[in-house]
Design a protein that fits this description.
- With 210 residues, the chain is α+β, with helices and mostly antiparallel strands.
- It is 47% helix and 24% strand.
- It is built from 4 helices and 8 strands.
- The strands form 2 sheets. It has a 5-stranded antiparallel beta sheet. Strands 6-7-8 form a 3-stranded antiparallel beta sheet, with no helix packed on it.
- The protein is elongated, with a radius of gyration of 22 Å.
Amino acid sequence: MILLGGLWVLAILADFVWAAWLLLRHSRGWNAGWRALLLLAVLLAPLQFASDYSLATPFGPFAIYGVACLAYVVMMIVVWRRNRVAAGLGLALPGAPLLVGAHGILLAVAVGLGARGIRPVAEGRISPTVSYRIVLSHGLFGATPYYEYKIYRNPRWFPLIQKKVTNSALPCGWQSEPKDDVIGPGRDETQVEIRCTDPQRGGPFEIPVR
């Protein structure tokens, strides 16, 4: 299975390079510009996956993947006019797992989306380069929902993007709520501190954000 998966990924990459070459070949002026932007939009998804950077909004990661998927389909439609084999493979290869195991894949996606919180119930900026969000996440298989913090790094040169550096359940008890915790700067730029409003719950807790 691992070998087949590796061959499948290599086939997708090879076809994508072929399609990108067909897309940009002999392009001039305005056509070259918008086609290069289309290719860049497709590459946003693997760049986000490899770097963990995304737009600094709760739905940023989903927006990036959505734009990349739409751009990929448009790219293959444009390539179709030049080479139907490359475009057909480009559309068929990524969708092959859905034909083989659609039920399992859709179930995994549904469980993943249902278990992870997206919309923040609290958020803020700790420093010019560090921000946080608190979301309500749901445990799998009927476990009790819990509040989860997410800490992000925001580059000084471009604060509109972020990189998630850590996430976990709020530390002031399993059923702690955002009002039970105070998130603020730590002793230096590499630390974030979480204090419990009830001292008996322990803390403060230092969270590394390197």
